[in-house]
Automatic annotation (TrEMBL):
Record's protein name: B box-type domain-containing protein
Organism of provenance: Escallonia rubra
């Protein structure tokens, strides 16, 4: 005799994770920073020298290389160093 192996486990819909409260303190640009592979070459300026994206524009939430910088001069820029990433992201 065969049993239909359909294991229907009813999960309560109220599975709210409250880690949202913790995430709320993380600014958008930091999410970008953490999600992004930094220090990669700028795709726009891959033929140029010094094209590592080592600056983050907090206004545009995008990584910038030294050639991308000029249009963003008036924006809030975060210069990212390897050391800074560690120190500035310890909230
Ligand atoms: Zn910008
Ligand atoms: Zn660039």
């Amino acid at each position: 005799m065969e049993e239909s192996g359909q294991a229907e486990s009813e999960q309560p819909l109220q599975s709210f994770n409250t880690h949202e409260a913790g995430l709320a303190s993380i600014p958008r640009w930091l999410e970008v920073l953490l999600a992004k592979e930094f220090f990669n070459s700028c795709l726009v300026h891959e033929a140029e020298k010094k094209n590592e994206e080592n600056t983050l524009c907090l206004d545009c939430c995008t990584g910038l290389c030294s050639h991308c910088l000029p249009p963003h001069k008036a924006h809030n820029l975060l210069q990212v160093n390897f050391a800074n990433v560690i120190t500035q992201t310890t909230f």
